[in-house]
Input
Amino acid sequence: MNRTRTIVLATVVVLFFASAARADSVDVELTQTSQTAAPGSTITFDATITNLSSTDTVFLNGDGSITSSPLLTVDDTPFLTNFPLSLDPSETSGPFALFNVIIDPTIAPGTYDFNSFSILGGADGSASDTIGTAEFSVTVATASPVPEPGILGLLVVGLLGLGALGSLRQRFSS
Output
């Protein structure tokens, strides 16, 4: 009984430290963790990625993302085009555009927290462990209505007409 308990405890400890060793091999530091934009716009998050290992090269093989609203869409094209395929020991890359967030025009104004962008990779080109994650938030501002140019033109013509009418009244009343 005591031997079984020792084996189970040793297994749990080994699994804990093995997962902790793999948990974050790179540091993903966003230049801004929170941004504000209007519905229908796109915002870009820039980041610097650093290999935390002083001895091992780490491969950046892919990414994943989670958003708190289906009306926020993460576009990973900047990560795929800007960052290298691997980082040498202690190497830093960036700051570069890491990802874009496309804000749907129908989204309600407010702050959307609990979003994340994860980098997948590991010790070789086929590894797909989560090796670094950045948390971010998006605040959707209320869209301020912009008057149409035609409305402004009508307003100007109306004011000029009122001014001319007042000037005519004053001339005829004198």
Remarks:
- Confidence is low (pLDDT under 50) at residues 12-22.
- DSSP finds three helices and nine strands in the chain.
- Residues 24-161 form a domain with the Immunoglobulin-like fold (CATH 2.60.40.10).
